[in-house]
């Protein structure tokens, strides 16, 4: 999945913190082995956001198991001003 807009293009992996230098992870040679608690410390407490980040960092395709409206609600929560407070999101 990608994020694209006027004059910008980002792969989901980059948004979640996977850099081009992480070739072993991108090539499937090394897994992303953070625990759920560690993922929440980085990405916050949104279950759907943590699930999406985990899938992206493991190189899996986003395949929603639920109604897409539920993901829209999660996106609204994650995009709120204070969501990243007390997380490592953007710092790690």
Compact description:
It comes from Trifolium pratense. The chain has one domain (2-78). Helices cover 41% and strands 9% of the residues.
Set out the fold topology.
Elements: E1 2-5, E2 8-11, H1 12-15, H2 23-26, H3 36-43, H4 47-57, H5 68-78
Helix pairs in contact: 3-4
Instruction: Work out the helix count.
Output: 5
Question: Major β-sheet, in short?
Answer: 2 strands, antiparallel
Query: N-to-C SSE series?
Result: EEHHHHH
Gap between N and C termini = 22 Å
In percent, how helical is the residue content?
40-55%
Structural class: mainly alpha
What is the count of structural domains?
Answer: 1
Poorly predicted segments = 24-31
Q: Would you count the extended β strands for me?
A: 2
Shape: globular
Strand order, largest beta sheet: 1-2
Q: What Rg do the Cα atoms give?
A: 13 Å
> Strand share of the residues?
5-15%
Mean pLDDT: 71
């Amino acid at each position: 999945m990608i994020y694209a807009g006027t004059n910008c293009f980002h792969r989901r992996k980059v948004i979640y913190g996977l850099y081009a230098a992480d070739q072993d992870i991108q090539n499937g040679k090394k897994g992303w082995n953070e625990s759920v608690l560690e993922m929440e410390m980085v990405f916050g407490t949104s279950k759907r956001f943590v699930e999406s980040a985990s899938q992206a960092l493991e190189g899996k395709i986003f395949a929603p198991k639920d109604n897409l409206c539920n993901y829209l609600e999660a996106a609204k929560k994650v995009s709120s001003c204070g969501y990243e407070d007390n997380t490592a999101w953007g710092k790690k």
